[in-house]
Amino acid sequence: MGDGNMMISLPPGFQFCPTDQELVLHFLYRKALLLPCHPTIPDLNLHLYNPWEFNGRALLSGNIYYFFSKVKENRTTKNGYWKESDVDEVPIQASHGEKVGVKKFLVFCLGVPPTGNKTSWVMEEYKICNTSGFSAAVYKKRGKQKLNCNKWVLCRVHERKGILSEQHTLCYGDDDDDNGTELSCLDEMFLSLDDDLEEISLQTD
Q1: Other residues' Cβ atoms within 10 Å of the Cβ of residue 108
Q2: Comparing C-alpha atoms, which of 126, 154, 155, 158 is closest to residue 62?
């Protein structure tokens, strides 16, 4: 499963929404050790595809794409490039507090670097911290001479709705922001139910 044109998605009723820690420890570390991951996250050559071409090639959950990619300094594609954001990298810690990885933020730009125009496509790129004691413990347990921490990154990509500042786009930190997601049918049903109950309450009062 990789760069072929196939549908890579979860069965109806299932959703893939791992935490940052889970993405690093349960998926990226397993990838570095050549162990299987469930669900399977495919490999993708970032140079070959624009973000709107990920459908059918990356693991899709909701409106978010997940895939592994080789570490590259140059992230250009057919129509643009992925630009690193000014937002600081986020350290990923294990449950005991040790730093095991980092998360970097990027935005997709159309055109030629460095003068391209930013789009609403954003990426979180996860990388293993190869100096951690956790890595050393994995080497010993698996009998590995070296864990290839610097070969792979795990990418989480989605398209933001509306025009937002880069800080809001990449950090989801605005309480007034709806994170670019639409209400599901159930959400709309419960909201309409709340409105009906409020109306009934006003009538009885």
Answers
A1: 24
A2: 158
CATH superfamily of 20-204: NAC domain (2.170.150.80)
* The two three-digit tokens of residue 131, written as one number: 């100096």
Are the CB atoms for 100 and 134 separated by under 8 Å? Answer: yes
Query: What does the domain layout of the chain look like in residue ranges?
Result: 20-204
What sections of 68-184 are H helices per DSSP? 133-142, 166-171
Q: Are 174 and 165 spatial neighbours (Cβ–Cβ below 8 Å)?
A: no
Contact 58, 157 (CB under 8 A): yes
pLDDT tens per residue across span 177-199 = 444 334 344 344 334 434 443 44
pTM over 0.90: no
Quick one: which of 148, 146, 156 has its CA closest to 125?
156
Expressed in angstroms, the distance from the first to the final Cα of the chain is 61
Q: Where are the alpha helices (DSSP H) in 25-145?
A: 29-32, 133-142
Q: Closest by alpha carbon to 126, among 29, 17, 16, 2?
A: 29
SS3 call for 110: strand
The 10s digit of each residue's pLDDT in 36-53 is 878 889 999 999 999 999
